[in-house]
Amino acid sequence: MPRLYGITSHDPIETWRRNFESKFGSILTSQVEPGRIKLEGQFSLDMEKFIIRGKATEGGVSVSVELLKKPENVPQGIRGMVEVDSFYFADLKRPKPLFVPGSKDGILAGFHRFLVLQAENASGVPKTLGIVSEFINSIVLPHGYSTTLRGKRLTTDEKEGLFLDGEPLYNVDPKLLSLLSMSLALEMSSEDSILIIEDPEAHLDKEDLRELTELFARFKGTLILATDYEFPSESSIEL
Predict the structure, then answer these.
(1) Can you tell which superkingdom this protein's organism belongs to (predicted)?
(2) Does residue 1 belong to any structural domain of this protein?
(3) pLDDT of 42-77, one tens digit each?
(4) pTM of the model
(5) 207 and 177 share one domain
């Protein structure tokens, strides 16, 4: 969220709104341009005191802001801008979204050695790898971690990484890797987190997807799926 101190006007509230629109849209555009990401669609964010509405096109992201609540008796000048800024941001929740990319099976297989918590060397992978590092670094596991998947046991080794029934992950079926990557992401995410999963249906058949739906239903955070697959209507997940 952009902080807007230093912008003065006879109407600090309206000036804050206009500049927030401009700054927020510019920030979003700057995030998609370097990767040549093409997005088309609309979004709406209810922030309790104001609503952000936006539209993404090939030309960037445009934003409009509607103020639901306004501070009273705001002075002009810098002091007024600080008060307006604090009014809208002081109690704003800032959950960090976690992203599971569509190529999760290949990423998990290629980077599984970085998934075990290290005592001396840094765990995870450099942030310069973008979504790969965000995904891997969000599911780093402690020593001795163990779980089961389809009757197979996942174990950790400090030097060699993860194994499924004794097999290193690069030898594991992509179907199991896809299920495992989503299962770990769901387990390692906190209850107040936002988890975004791209193409959850990749490599999976209908039976696998029913199992996946059960995993989704147990998740306590906010789940966003980027998919063309229609999950069973009887499931309790919200898309």
Answers:
(1) Archaea
(2) no
(3) 999 898 999 999 998 877 788 999 999 999 999 887
(4) 0.67
(5) yes
